[in-house]
Amino acid sequence: MTDATQAKPVDFERALAELESQVQRLEGGDLPLEDALKAFEEGVRLTRQCQQSLDAAEQKVQLLLAKRDGSLDTEAFTPRDDS
User: Fold this and answer.
1) Which Pfam family is an annotated match for this chain, by its short name (predicted)?
2) Contact 50, 12 (CB under 8 A)
């Protein structure tokens, strides 16, 4: 295994917060080109990491909802109204 595959993955919330920070830096428009490219590259990496975390969570949910016959027991999501 390489160092990248052995490294402990950063939790989703931390990666998302860092991604938001990179987006804010880029939206500021005052970064030199080289710094903007580095921030963009980091943003792409963080986006992929967040997507992998979401995919893994979805797989876990599907496993938890799977019936013995292999079909999924699904129901529509209804958001709570916290107001």
Assistant:
1) Exonuc_VII_S
2) yes
Contact yes or no for 31/62 (Cβ under 8 A)? no
pLDDT, tens digit (0-9, with 9 covering 90-100), for 31-77: 999 999 999 999 999 999 999 999 988 888 888 887 777 676 666 66
Residue spans per domain, the chain: 10-65
Is the pTM here over 0.70, yes or no?
A: no
Classified as helix, coil or strand, 27 is helix
Output the pLDDT for position 1.
Answer: 40
